[in-house]
User: Fold these one by one.
Assistant:
Number 1:
Amino acid sequence: MTRSIITAAAQVGPIARADSRAQVVDRLIALLREAHARGAELVVFPELTLTTFFPRWHMTDPTEISAFFETAMPGPQTQRLFDVARDLRVGFYLGYAELAEEDGLQHRFNTSVLVDRAGKMVGKYRKIHLPGYDAPQPERTSQHLEKYYFEPGNLGFPVWRTMGAVMGMCICNDRRWPETYRVMALQGAEMILVGYNTPDDHTGNFDFDSLTGFHNQLSLQAGAYQNSAWVVATAKAGLEEGSRLIGQSMIVAPSGQVVAMATSTSDEVVVARCDLDMAALYRRTIFDLARHREPQHYGLIVERKGPVPPPEDAQP
Ligand code: CDV
């Protein structure tokens, strides 16, 4: 018997700063209903789905900042989405900004949750690879201040056995890092869910930025193939408060092939049947990690953030 999950990437078009949570949740419910009508059992929404991508601005007023964060999930504004999903028996991934209270202190994380088809919260992930800066960059016209607004996630990259598969989550910039996929693959992940917000001018270097779409695909396809997993990647897309966010929401097979991709930068649902036996085939053969991976021969791995230092006898 083949195991499969019909999965949707529910791309969300631009969200204005003035848009209310109620307006956004209405759009998410419409996307969820469309996905369900097209057979989806699992829907993946983007990173920071509930608001505009606020790390593009430097805010200092705590009240202004808090308005972008959720203190509970589900909360009063999002409960409707959870209810509709449960009634339709559709599981989902949702990214949001989380204000958490831990050890008597407040912490801000860029977070996603995984909810099963019965409406039960299965897991939570907090983004580890935060891009950008922890202070505004005067030379930049548009800021990227994720390191200012968020702490790196403290939950690792767990996986969950749910909805008939082993699933893991990551968020946006995480998808560019091979460790993200590999840590989950080593735990048996068959599906990796990821939401993103990717401006097409994020480095300010045109040679680099013009490849933004290519790098998105490259990362997702390599991650899927090298780790024998389905990757379901969903964008917040379109012209949002002056920032052009790429679309390209896509579903990538463990073969590395893109099986569905959004064609717009608006609200759009793409659907594919994810055959989990295909993931098992790749992991049983070329990427049998237990048989073919050789970590004992990789040499000493040194935790170092900078380049290798020059030899001590190097000439100045
Ligand atoms: N939200 C993100 O993490 N965006 C980054 C951009 C800034 C490089 C990304 O990896 O798409």
Note: The longest strand covers residues 91-102.
Number 2:
Amino acid sequence: MVTEEELITQLNKSCLPRHVAIIMDGNGRWALARGLERIFGHQAGMESLREVVKLCVELGIQVLTVYAFSTENWKRSRLEVDFLMGLLIKYLYQEIDELCANKVKIKILGNFEKFTTEVQAAINMAIEKSQSNNGLNFNIALNYGGRFEIVEATKVMAQKVASGRLAIEEINEVLFADHLYTAGQPDPDLLIRPAGDFRVSNFLLWQIAYTEFWFTEVKWPDFRRIHFLQALIDFQNRERRFGG
Ligand code: FPP
């Protein structure tokens, strides 16, 4: 098997994606394959997340976005939803000091008002503590849905038009993007989806117009630095034409 050192030598550090997005998939299947309950897959997936964030910091990547909880994930069992929320709280309180030491700035993509006050407190703490950091922009998509995001942006622009603060002629792609959670950030250059499925699952629908996709059979709890590096190298070997 290829080593991390070999992969690092293949990587062109001057040509990294500015924004990497990840659909952290396969936690449930990882656990079931080991005779464990699904929640243990999420727990194991935390370690993968820690590794990837650390690597993004080391490489100087500008933006990392992870899909932690979708608008559809509410359909899961109460136990699983509560467990995921507990993990999020634990992650934020445990990691915030190290994240801040590494200048990581946390942003939430999604409407988190629906979460319990305990979850909201953890999120607000992390946002506040990290707000002046100027390193990696770490977006955590929570109660996020791409269609919902687009509809919400449309509503805000429609309200501005209705109240005379915006002219219809002023609406263009740049203005639209400015009304999304990712306003001001570059679109993802690379989207990684582990666990063998080839779909987008309502993730960053507007932002991925020209994103390169990278898929692997490896399930998220087994996803390690070597997989991330492999994705970066494959990305660097692609020719991006942006429709041109
Ligand atoms: C998808 O796997 C994963 C999720 C819905 C949750 C991802 C959450 C984590 C990795 C926990 C750590 C994250 C934070 C921010 C604390 P799945 O359950 O759909 O897997 P399956 O397709 O095998 O069932």
Note: The CA atoms of residues 39 and 80 lie 6 Å apart.
